[in-house]
Each structure stands twice: as structure tokens, then as C-alpha cells.
Specification:
About 40% of the residues lie in helices and about 20% in strands. The protein is of the alpha/beta class. The radius of gyration is 19 Å and the shape is globular. The protein binds nicotinamide-adenine-dinucleotide (NAD) and uridine-diphosphate-N-acetylglucosamine. Nicotinamide-adenine-dinucleotide (NAD) binds next to helix 1, strand 2, helix 5 and strand 5. Keywords: Carbohydrate metabolism, Isomerase, NAD. One of its GO terms (biological process) is galactose metabolic process. Pfam families: GDP_Man_Dehyd.
């Protein structure tokens, strides 16, 4: 069964391609290389011992979508493509709405024209804003988002729900990721942020490998176990498997299927620093700094709905997340090549 994977050369998309092939699916990748490098393709080949079919192009290019859908018998689309940097979205809101919202509408309109009515969308825990309850359930209120990136995810969710109301044949799966981290256990694939990393794990990894001097810990006066922010980190291989589970269990069922993909466990910044020090064998230098504006104290998922419906649950803990990230970062300190 062929699956179109938009953004399939990116961080989560590339790991999902590996697991798709392992599960017997054939991914067809569409990526415009905005935030990825062509070098990913040869790393995928080393892991898989086979080529992954890919198109370098944009989800907003309707003609390209039409030709891909004409050429391949695509049964479902996993839609990762989009922009994801919160700070940048505040500076460039129009680019975020154009790519994330309009881009999804163009994709879905072309899917409709081609008679493909199954989409799995990369949503985010960001749609819960500062959550009204913890652990966060799928029924927890959404919409009180705090930045254009978060709003773009919320808007797409609402557009897709309305599409299902208008045409109930659609299978719409909204996967709300918590904090994806980690790398393929081979050390051949991983996260390769361009510029200064915004997120905790890639920043720690770059300190560990000597690319940055020290980590700034954004606040130690939160009402949490040690005063630092607490998040639900999920291994990217578990996240990838969540997409396979969604394909297997709900992608051929009409409806709107919403799942949190998290572990259900919260880890603090200092706990993550300690775990990474264990993984890399030396201390990670850090300094306590001011809080980052817009950050929440803590959040973690209630992942029980995904367990019940998708028969999926996260397998890996912080030890694997840090060890696998370290293997990737120490093998490829400068990430993928062009
Ligand atoms: P990523 O930037 O590594 O991957 C996204 C890929 O999409 C990149 O390869 C990029 O080149 C491509 N792309 C962007 N715009 C495109 C377009 N218009 N046409 C074609 N390709 C395009 O990001 P990721 O971490 O793998 O995230 C994948 C998805 O998951 C995104 O939608 C993101 O918002 C969502 N998400 C990510 C996180 C996270 O922390 N990584 C958390 C929650 C949700
Ligand atoms: C960020 C995004 C969120 C997105 C999520 C997915 C922001 C404000 N939010 O959330 O929209 O869905 O990523 O991955 O960017 N930290 C440090 N020092 C650092 C970096 C982070 O102390 O250099 C702390 C943060 O304060 C937080 C924790 O580490 O407590 C995790 O931060 P991060 O990895 O950026 O993720 P989120 O804040 O959860």
C-alpha cells in the first residue's frame, strides 16, 4: 500500500519512512527541502538497504500533487510538511499561515480531486495552550494557543473537522505529538536543526558534542519537582510507530480520530541534563537563566486513548532517548550533508 509522506525528509517524517517500510508500506515522499537536506536520502538507504521514492517539491504546487496522485495509487497521506519554529512564527505569521494552513488546504483539495480521503495530520500538544488539566486528555479544551504556529495547527484541525462534517466519508486522524526527541538506534538518522536549536534536546546534544558552550536553563522557579519545566518527551521511533498504528487501525475508517502521542511521564530540564550526561559520559555545562516568555510550567499526556484504540504505547524511556541522540550527534556532529 502506497502512502504519500509530505515532509518525509524531515526529522519525524524520515523516521516514519523507516517504520513504514518495516511494516510493509511503500512511502512516496514529497519535501521541498526547506528544513531538510537531500543527504537524508542516502542515510535512509543505508538503514533500509533500498531506495525511498521521493519528489523535491512543495505541497502548494497543485500540478505536482496532481501528477503524483496520477502516477501512484496512493491510499492515504501522512502530512508532516510545515513550518514549526514558535519564535519564527511570531516574526513571520503570514509565512506560517501560508505554509501550514493554506498548504494543507491545497493538499486536501487535490486529495479530494484524486478521490483519496484518508489523511493523518501532524498536530501538536501546542493546541492545548496552557492546559486546563494535567494529564492532558484528547477532550481537554483546545484553541487557547499562544503563537501563530500553535494557531496554525489549531486552524488546520478545525478545517479538517469541518471537512468531515461536509463529507463524512473522510478519515481524518489528528495526532497531537508531545515532545519528540531521540534518533534512529543505528545513529544514522536524527534531528538536524539549522541554526541555533530552539528545543531542549538538540541544544543539550550540541553542548555535549562541543558545538555550544553551555545550556541556558529557562527558569528554576516553576512549581514543579525541581523548579525547571516538565515535559512529556517521546522517542521519535515510538512516534513513528504511532503513525503505523494509526494507518492500521483508523486510516480506513471514516471519522475524526484524535490521539495524544506521549508517554504519560513528565521529565524536568535538570533530569534531562542528568540523563544526557550519563549517556555521553561527561557533564553537560548549564546555567540557570530567566524564564522563556510563553513557556508553561509542565505538561504531559494521558496516552490511554491511543493504547485502547490503536494498540500503541510508547516503549522507550529517557535512557534510550538520550543514548540514541548521543549516538547520532557524536557520529554526525554537523548533521546531514547537502
Ligand atoms: P521538520 O522541519 O524536520 O520536517 C518538516 C519537513 O517538511 C521538512 O523536511 C521541510 O523541508 C518540509 N516542508 C516544509 N514546508 C513544506 C512544503 N510547503 N512543501 C513540502 N515540504 C515542506 O519537522 P518535524 O520535527 O519532522 O515535524 C514534522 C511535523 O510535526 C510538522 O508539521 C510539525 O509542526 C509537527 N510537530 C513537530 C513537533 C516537534 O517538536 N518536532 C512537535 C509537534 C508537532
Ligand atoms: C516547544 C514549543 C511548542 C512545540 C514543542 C514541540 C515553544 C515556546 N514551544 O515546546 O510549541 O509544540 O516545542 O517540540 O517553543 N528549555 C531550556 N533551555 C533551552 C530550551 C528549552 O531550559 O535551551 C526548557 C524549556 O523552558 C522547557 C523544556 O526545556 O521547559 C522543553 O522546551 P522545548 O524543547 O523548547 O519544548 P516546549 O517548550 O515543550
Amino acid at each position: 500500500m502506497k502512502v504519500l509522506v509530505t515532509g518525509g525528509l524531515g526529522y519525524i517524517g524520515s523516521h516514519t519512512c523507516v517504520q513504514l517500510i518495516a511494516a510493509g508500506y511503500t512511502p512516496v515522499v514529497l519535501d521541498n527541502l526547506h528544513n531538510s537536506k537531500l543527504g537524508v536520502v542516502s542515510h535512509l538507504k543505508k538503514i533500509l538497504d533500498q531506495d525511498v521514492q521521493y519528489y523535491v517539491g512543495d505541497i502548494r504546487d497543485r500540478q505536482l500533487l496532481q501528477s503524483i496522485f496520477a502516477e501512484h495509487d496512493i491510499k492515504a497521506v501522512i502530512h508532516f510538511a510545515g513550518l514549526k519554529a514558535v519564535g519564527e512564527s511570531v516574526e513571520k505569521p503570514l509565512e506560517y499561515y501560508e505554509n501550514n494552513v493554506y498548504g494543507t488546504l491545497a493538499l486536501v483539495q487535490e486529495m479530494k480531486a484524486a478521490g483519496i480521503k484518508s489523511i493523518i495530520f501532524s498536530s501538536s500538544a501546542t493546541v492545548y495552550g496552557d492546559p486546563e488539566e494535567i494529564p492532558i486528555r484528547e477532550t481537554t479544551a483546545t484553541g487557547a494557543t499562544t503563537n501563530p504556529y500553535g494557531r496554525s495547527k489549531y486552524m488546520v484541525e478545525e478545517c479538517l473537522k469541518d471537512l468531515h462534517i461536509a463529507d463524512p466519508d473522510w478519515s481524518i486522524t489528528l495526532l497531537r505529538y508531545f515532545n519528540p526527541v531521540g534518533s534512529h538506534p543505528s545513529g544514522l538518522l536524527g534531528e538536524d536543526p539549522q541554526g541555533i536549536p530552539n528545543n531542549l534536546m538538540p541544544f543539550i546534544a550540541q553542548v555535549a558534542v562541543g558545538r555550544r558552550e553551555q545550556l541556558a536553563v529557562f527558569g528554576n522557579d516553576y512549581p514543579t519537582k525541581d523548579g525547571t519545566g516538565v515535559r512529556d518527551y517521546i522517542h521519535v521511533m515510538d512516534l513513528a510507530d504511532g503513525h503505523i498504528a494509526a494507518l492500521q487501525h483508523v486510516s480506513d475508517k471514516a471519522g475524526v480520530h484524535i490521539y495524544n502521542l506521549g508517554t504519560g511521564t513528565g521529565t524536568s530540564v535538570l533530569e534531562m541534563v542528568a540523563a544526557f550526561s550519563d549517556a555521553c559520559g561527561h557533564p553537560i555545562k548549564y546555567q540557570i537563566c530567566e524564564r522563556r516568555p510563553g513557556d508553561i510550567a509542565e505538561c504531559w499526556a494521558d496516552p490511554s486513548k491511543a493504547k485502547a484504540d490503536l494498540k500503541w504505547q510508547a516503549q522507550y524511556g529517557i535512557a534510550e532517548m538520550t543514548a540514541d541522540t548521543w549516538r547520532w550527534q557524536s557520529n554526525y556532529p554537523n548533521g546531514f550533508s547537502d
